[in-house]
Amino acid sequence: MSDKIALASPVYEIIDIKRRTKAETMRDWRQGDRIRFSTVMKAMAGASGGGVYASMYCAANLTQGTSVYKSQTQLSCFFGFGTDSYYDKYATFTIQEINS
């Protein structure tokens, strides 16, 4: 029996690139690329300086075969959903879920 649970999102498509990024893995991502987000849920004991460890999330570009691991807060700065929310104003990529 495994002590962790893999979690994965539906597939999203990059529908707009609002600004170029210098982030090494993401700088070559293009409009039309398909993205899937994932993480692993597992029991974690301990803390760092009284806080807790940030969960790391994977943003995998299924089209190009590349991926990047960032915290949820860091990833939210890259992706928006075209809803004119606070995060959409500063997002690098606008994404949309692909209905299968």
Structure description:
The mean pLDDT is 83. The longest helix is centred in the C-terminal third of the chain and has 5 residues, at 72-76. The protein is globular. It has helices spanning 72-76, 86-90, and strands at 4-17, 34-42, 56-61, 66-71, 79-80, 93-97. It is mainly beta and 100 residues long. The protein contains two helices and six strands; from the N terminus they run E-E-E-E-H-E-H-E. Strand 3 (56-61) and strand 4 (66-71) form a beta hairpin. A six-stranded mixed β-sheet has the order 4-3-2-1-6-5.
* Spatial extent as radius of gyration: 15 Å
Distance between the termini: 31 Å
Structural class: mainly beta
Biggest sheet, spatial arrangement of strands:
4-3-2-1-6-5
The ordered string of helix (H) and strand (E) elements is EEEEHEHE
Uncertain segments: none
Largest sheet composition? 6 strands, mixed
Give the CA-based shape: globular
Average pLDDT metric:
83
Total beta strand runs: 6
* SS field, number of helical segments: 2
Explain the layout of strands and helices.
Elements: E1 4-17, E2 34-42, E3 56-61, E4 66-71, H1 72-76, E5 79-80, H2 86-90, E6 93-97
Parallel strand pairs: 5-6
Antiparallel strand pairs: 1-2, 1-6, 2-3, 3-4
